[in-house]
Amino acid sequence: MSGAQAKSLQAARPDLGAASILAALPVPVFVVSDDDCFAYLNAAAESFFAGSAATLKGRPLTQLLPSDSPLFLLLNQVRERGHSLSEYGVALEGARFGSHFVTLDAALLPDRPGAVVVSMQERSIARKIDRQLTHRNAARSVTAMAAMLAHEVKNPLSGIRGAAQLLELTHEGQDLELTRLICDEADRIVHLVDSMEKFADGQPLAHEAVNIHEVLGHVRRLMASGAGRHVKFVERYDPSLPAVRGSRDLLIQVFINLVKNAVEAAPSVGGIVQLITSYRQGVKLAVQGGGEKLHLPLTVAVEDNGPGVPEDLQSHLFDPFVSTKPNGKGLGLALVAKIVDDHGGVIELDSDPGRTRFTLYLPLSKPKEA
Predict the structure, then answer these.
(1) Non-local CB neighbours of 318 within 8 Å, separated by 6+ positions
(2) How confident is the model at residue 126 (pLDDT cuts 50, 70, 90)?
């Protein structure tokens, strides 16, 4: 290639500088200097803070945010620890831009000591996690109902079934079929109540160090040899992922429910179910009503390429008796929410047509458990 041709090709290429890339991002991104002043804002950040970059550069953040804003605590933590941090469920308020519920991601700029780059996302995981806390409460609320059903329904049913079995000894023909029908229906109701009793199990978990990849591999083999024969399983694992703190049997139950749902949602031709694990440094969750923040760095996702969950059901999908299946009982995901809650974790749903992902955020195992 001649020098003239190279110059012509270079001139035809667009300038992919960092500033143009950041300006095109739909999420607010800004840089805070070591003295907590604005050093850079992209177009989305200008819109968020209701001001142009020219007027905001060099201005202290305290002119737009109160001095006790959680953003300042996050900036100080990033500078002290020297690595990136994420904060979910942060309320940012200011007289200039109003009140917003956001996710904050912050990291040090290596070429500018003390400078921190911050990105914000509205209506993202922060809102979903906040909604999931409500789902966990809904799963807990069914516990009392399950205990009541076990006591008030199963005892009379055993009497009904016993009476029907006695009638079988003295009847035949059509009457015998009716007595057997009574027994079968009584057994069906007992089975339904048994599934509800799982919510009433108040026994503390026997925590241990669980290799989540072994759990996922076990569930994948079960599904691939049964209901999931028509789908392609894709495993995208972080091989360095540490152990999860929890119960292996209960985690298997969780992922059997999630993978089974994904398999059933995936199309019969070209169906894909992905199992994904990753480690997210600095992920914390501030639980409502508690001062301590939970560290949930282990993420496990189950994703399918099905039609997606209807938008009007997404906010209620973890509630008992809510199901997208014609014959579904609506207890599977409610039980999943309860088990994840018992593990101290969080589950979120992200669904659009052609893609549905359930993501679990789980705690690390403790050294003595490992």
Answers:
(1) 132, 135, 136, 138, 139, 333, 334, 336, 337, 347, 349
(2) very low
In total, the chain counts a number of residues equal to: 370
| Per-residue pLDDT at 259 | 94
DSSP designation for 51: S
Q: What digits encode the pLDDT tens for the residues 280-295?
A: 765 555 444 444 456 7
What the block records as the tokens of 44 is: 């989305």
Q: How many CA atoms lie within 13 A of 235 on its CB side?
A: 14
| Distance between CA atoms of residues 30 and 37, nearest Å | 10
State the DSSP string of 73-142.
Answer: HHHHHHHHH-S-EEEEEEEEEETTTEEEEEEEEEEE-TTSTT-EEEEEEESSHHHHHHHHHHHHHHHHHH
Instruction: Please choose, from the candidates 270, 244, 272, 268, the residue with its C-alpha nearest in 3D space to the C-alpha of residue 259.
Output: 272
Q: What is the mean pLDDT of residues 114-125?
A: 79
Q: Are strands 85-94 and 283-286 parallel, antiparallel or unpaired?
A: parallel
Residue 187 confidence (pLDDT)? 80
322: amino acid identity, one letter? V
Contact 181, 189 (CB under 8 A): no
Q: Is the pLDDT of residue 141 over 60?
A: no
- Pairing verdict, β 293-295 and 283-286: antiparallel
